[in-house]
Automatic annotation (TrEMBL):
It comes from Schleiferia thermophila. Signal peptide: none annotated. It comes from the Bacteria. Pfam families: Glyoxalase_4. PANTHER family: METHYLMALONYL-COA EPIMERASE, METHYLMALONYL-COA EPIMERASE, MITOCHONDRIAL. The keyword Kinase does not apply. This is Methylmalonyl-CoA epimerase. One of its GO terms (molecular function) is metal ion binding. InterPro entries: Glyas_Bleomycin-R_OHBP_Dase, MeMalonyl-CoA_epimerase, MMCE/EMCE_epimerase, VOC_core. The keyword Metal-binding applies. Belongs to the methylmalonyl-CoA epimerase family.
Amino acid sequence: MFGKIEHIGIAVKNLTEAEQRYTQLLGTSPYKREEVASEGVLTSFFLAGVNKIELLQALNSESAIAKFIEKRGEGIHHVAYEVEDIYKEMDRLRNSGFTLLNEHPKKGADNKLICFVHPRDAHGVLVELCQSI
């Protein structure tokens, strides 16, 4: 079962510029920067109250973020939901006809196991499942 929204992922062209702008917007600095080589991204996390915002910059032209920005421009890339048991949720979603973009969970940013649900199955929204490791 899905829990709270874990974070909202925002694709950006220039992480340093975006961090400066979001620092001004949110009135707080990012608490963490992390490279996720498996996804080809550099991430930066902000806390806004109890909510997290993840800024994502592509590290190479083959990353999903680079392709997203090329196609749609900067903006909201995904909504991530906290789950207690990612394996159980993946099975439940597969059995319900959802297309998962990952066969198995993989290590993501912020010490999480992650899996993505194809946006066509969620009315155009890329959904990420996140389980704390």
